[in-house]
């Protein structure tokens, strides 16, 4: 089997390969991917540092052309890359192709942003002096990504980093190196100069830690668990570098008595269970007012019965497998905890066997949960959601905000008054009205509050807040 190597200083290097296993069929090896050492990581950081002066002064047409070429190739190969994504991560093929298209859109957007770089010119407070405000790249950026969006998250960090003139050391999650290798290969062939993007696949405790320990990274942009995010933060403060964290969620979806039942059920089914519930924006707390509670639970349970859990590549599959054995154990542990805490198991709860050996779990719905239970407070990151009964909108809002997290929040209602109030008073970074809490656009800011995020927003033009630093220059006329 071909070994997919790391890209360091423009060369493909590495000898020791790790098997990338398909969670829909654990007998199937998706590919063999190199595992970098701490020394390889140091070499990659040195290469990115050496490449920075030239790339930071590169022309906008060069940046535009490389990013646009990358977008075009990803789009042209969406079925092939989408299939690779579904095989390595386990989301269904339509979801995986959708994510691949999104990655292409992100590269396309930042290809355009390269042509729209701009500053401001202001008069000084003093006569005969002009003031220019410009944005400059910050240097070498460390990019550390999780396994649940194997192509979209790398895209939304790599594309702006390069667009604004930074160089990159990129460490994808161990479980899903395939799509990251594909991005690095495409950018490399699109003409990126040597050392501008370095791919270092490998363990978090080795490659990731070597990045955290390096004094030569000007910034780290991280998406992953809150625990690892705290390590990124602590090391960044020690090294006086910029950092941006996108972490866990425990997203609420409020359903009010006046909701359109079909809209509410569809939003909850999508947010809670699609992509196997493995989205940071998934809603795992369904906060439902008394008047609609029983109807909503009955309709959602009926909807869950229609969802087919099977091989990610099989036509007709709605929910693919859980990503690996460890995540499956976490999910089933939380299902046991929910039962012990006194929540009622209304649907699912069991692992299931399919034709191929894989990590299959039924979509699982608890009812009669309280917001104090561990299943309501801790991120599970699987196809498990709980219904919390409340008496009215005011209690629903209070429960929605009573969480350490603050990424996304949704409300299903036909009341303009409640929708407007919820948008203003939800303590989440993103608010959805009559829509799933998951599923966002590529050209607008993405991010949360409280323990979900730290630092400036990702995506859209707001990305420049992290990937650039502002300079103010005064000139005597
Ligand atoms: P994780 O924290 O285990 O791993 C994330 C990345 O950090 C991986 O590349 C891993 O190898 C690396 N890492 C691990 N230990 C490290 C260390 N000591 N030093 C440096 N890097 C290290 O998270 P995960 O399990 O891959 O992803 C799931 C989590 O990601 C969930 O909590 C989910 O909510 C979160 N997530 C958040 C968002 C968001 O935008 N808020 C998006 C997707 C996923």
Automatic annotation (TrEMBL):
Membrane-crossing residue ranges in chain numbering: none
Gene3D superfamilies registered for this protein in UniProt: Aldehyde Dehydrogenase, Chain A, domain 1, Aldehyde Dehydrogenase, Chain A, domain 2
Residue ranges constituting the Aldehyde dehydrogenase domain according to the UniProt record: 15-472
Active site: 246
Coiled-coil positions: none
Name used for this protein in its record: Aldehyde dehydrogenase (NAD+)
GO MF: aldehyde dehydrogenase (NAD+) activity; metal ion binding
A matching Pfam family: Aldedh
EC number(s) on file: 1.2.1.3
InterPro entries for this protein: Ald_DH/histidinol_DH, Ald_DH_C, Ald_DH_CS_CYS, Ald_DH_CS_GLU, Ald_DH_N, Aldehyde_DH_dom
Family assignment from sequence similarity: Belongs to the aldehyde dehydrogenase family.
EC class of the enzyme, as a word: oxidoreductase
């Amino acid at each position: 089997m071909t070994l997919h190597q790391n890209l360091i200083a423009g060369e493909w290097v590495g000898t020791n390969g790790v098997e990338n296993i398909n969670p829909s069929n654990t007998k199937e090896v998706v590919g063999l991917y190199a595992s970098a050492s701490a020394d390889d990581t140091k070499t990659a950081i040195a290469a990115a540092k050496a490449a920075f002066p030239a790339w930071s002064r590169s022309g906008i047409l060069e940046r535009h052309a490389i990013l646009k070429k990358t977008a075009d190739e990803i789009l042209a190969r969406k079925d092939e890359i989408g299939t690779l994504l579904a095989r390595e991560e386990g989301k269904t093929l339509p979801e995986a192709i959708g994510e691949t298209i999104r990655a292409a859109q992100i590269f396309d957007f930042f290809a355009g942003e390269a042509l729209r770089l701009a500053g401001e010119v202001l008069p000084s407070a003093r006569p005969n002096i002009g003031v220019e405000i410009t944005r400059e790249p910050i240097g070498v950026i460390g990019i550390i990504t999780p396994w649940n969006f194997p192509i979209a998250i790398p895209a939304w960090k790599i594309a702006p980093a390069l667009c604004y003139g930074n160089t990159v050391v990129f460490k994808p999650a161990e479980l899903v190196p395939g799509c990251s290798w594909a991005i690095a290969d495409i950018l490399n062939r699109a003409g990126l100069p040597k050392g501008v993007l370095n791919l270092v696949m490998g363990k978090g405790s080795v490659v990731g830690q070597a990045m955290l320990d390096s004094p030569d990274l000007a910034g780290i942009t991280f998406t992953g668990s809150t625990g690892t995010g705290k390590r990124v933060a602590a090391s960044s403060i020690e090294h006086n570098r910029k950092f941006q964290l996108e972490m866990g969620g425990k997203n609420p979806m409020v359903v009010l008595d006046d909701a359109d039942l079909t809209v509410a059920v569809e939003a909850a089914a999508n947010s809670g269970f699609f992509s196997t519930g493995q989205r940071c924006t998934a809603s795992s707390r369904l906060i439902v007012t008394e008047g609609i509670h029983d109807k909503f639970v009955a309709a959602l349970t009926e909807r869950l019965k229609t969802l087919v859990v099977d091989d990610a590549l099989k036509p007709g599959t709605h929910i693919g497998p859980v990503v690996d054995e460890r995540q499956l154990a976490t999910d089933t542990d939380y299902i046991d905890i929910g039962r012990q805490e006194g929540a009622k198991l209304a649907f699912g709860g069991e692992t299931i066997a399919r034709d191929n050996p894989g990590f299959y779990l039924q979509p699982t719905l608890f009812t009669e949960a309280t917001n104090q239970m561990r299943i309501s407070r801790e991120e599970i990151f699987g196809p498990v959601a709980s219904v919390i009964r409340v008496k009215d909108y005011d209690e629903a809002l209070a429960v929605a905000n009573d969480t350490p997290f603050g990424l996304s929040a949704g409300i299903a209602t036909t009341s303009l008054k409640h929708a407007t109030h919820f948008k203003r008073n939800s303590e989440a970074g993103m608010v959805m009205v009559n829509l799933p809490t998951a599923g966002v656009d590529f050209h607008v800011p993405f991010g949360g509050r409280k323990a979900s995020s730290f630092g400036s927003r990702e995506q859209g033009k707001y990305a420049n807040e992290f990937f650039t630093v502002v300079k103010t220059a005064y000139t005597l006329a």
